[in-house]
Amino acid sequence: MPDMKATVREWLDTGKVDLFLGYKQVEGHPLPYAFDRDNLEELQDLMESPARYPLEKLGAGILAVQPNLKIGILGRDCNRRALNVLAVHQQITPGQIEVLELKCCPSPLHKHADCSSLEPRTYGPVKLEVGIDNSMPTARMEQFDQRTRFDKWLYEFQKCLKCYGCRDICPVCFCKECSLEHADLVETGGVPPEVPLFHLIRAVHMAGRCIDCGLCEDACPVDIPLRLLYRKVNEIVKDLFGYETGLSLEQPPLSILGECAPGVTGSHGAAV
Hints:
The chain is an alpha/beta fold. It is built from 10 helices and 5 strands. The chain has 2 domains: 100 residues, no CATH class; 133 residues, no CATH class.
């Protein structure tokens, strides 16, 4: 912790970054906080938080308003993958956000993790019988017959409160207009949303974009296995195109749809 604080102080002192996005304890809760060189004494409150927020998404939002700023963030490998996706989709310029790395959680997109903030959970007999064990691999899910898979996913989707927490916390959701709020696609005023349309729309939009950080599932108040769902769509993209999301600044296969000006995206979240 002292080394981390010293590094952030050096970054701010030397002008390597103008702002550093980390965590500070506020009313007993670790919350995102912007540290700057005018208030270096606040760095004594900088902490490594067990809670996770999409700091790179917050940084991209700041840069959209003040593009000349240099921003640092406290992050993990998934934050780096998200930054690559944001750069590929022209939401930031590569190098605008510097990452001070923490130990990170294991993921199919990160082969050499040494700790986890996403420990496998245990579930009761009802969820395991009629629903889905969130921690199972996609190959295990596919061992069920088609009818069983269908029934299990319907059970999970019917729990949805349409809180939009999965979308709002996602570091690679950045559309100016969201398809999940389009009246012709998702009927307004109804809870749960039409099953399974709401989640299938989002799953399709995560293809080639999901960086497997697990924030959506952490935020879901009814424990829908969203990470498993998005892993599957990424597997399809990898099988079809050999593309692994966020590992580089290489254009995703869906870029064949065309390009757009920086900071402008279509309703499906990719450049159009």
